[in-house]
Design goal:
The chain has a 5-stranded mixed beta sheet with strand order 1-2-3-4-5, sandwiched between helices. The chain is built from 4 helices and 5 strands, in the order E-H-H-E-E-E-H-E-H. It is α+β, with helices and mostly antiparallel strands. The longest helix is centred in the N-terminal third of the chain and has 18 residues. Helix 1 crosses helix 2. Helix 3 links the parallel strand 4 and strand 5. The protein is globular, with a radius of gyration of 16 Å. The relative contact order is 0.17. The model has no long low-confidence stretch (mean pLDDT 93).
Length: 160
């Protein structure tokens, strides 16, 4: 059952890192169930913590959190990427992760985090945003479609 609680969307801070590692672990576990290629290493927690600390210090990344009653219930990561000089439109936004903890879904939290990242990307002069969605995740597919994202390229993989 969804909780009708006040949720604050704000930029992540270094003090949030432990809770962010836990949230990302939930998302990563979901991806691991969808495809074994996303299997986590034994040291994933330490590695992701180091990665987050690196992201939080960058001007080309925005990490936002959803906080309810002092608990983090969602995270989203947006980045600015730069394509090679042979493309006219080089600056692209990339949505790396959007995750809302189970029990808090369906309340617009994911959309609010996405809106915050998209607004930041617009202020940075970015006009196109891209992302990937794991196959076999119909909830995510529906979320992105409702948010206006369309399929324009299909990634394929082959295990050797």
């Amino acid at each position: 059952m969804a909780r009708a609680l006040a949720v604050q969307i704000r930029p992540a801070e270094p003090r949030d890192v432990p809770a962010l590692v836990e949230l990302w672990g939930e998302l990563a576990t979901l991806h691991e169930r969808l495809d074994g290629a996303f299997a986590l290493s034994r040291t994933w927690q330490r590695a992701y913590e180091e990665y987050l600390v690196h992201l939080l210090g960058r001007d080309d990344v925005l990490v936002v959190v959803a906080e309810s009653q002092g608990q983090l219930v969602g995270l989203a990561v947006g980045r600015i990427t730069l394509l090679p000089a042979f493309f006219r439109q080089r600056r692209r936004g990339y949505i790396q992760d959007v995750y809302t903890r189970e029990g808090y879904r369906g309340q617009g939290i994911g959309r609010a985090m996405l809106d915050r990242i998209e607004a930041w990307l617009r202020r940075q002069g970015v006009r196109r945003v891209e992302l990937t969605v794991a196959v076999g995740n119909p909830q995510a597919e529906a979320f992105w479609e409702r948010a206006g994202y369309r399929t324009y390229m299909v990634y394929r993989a082959k295990d050797l």
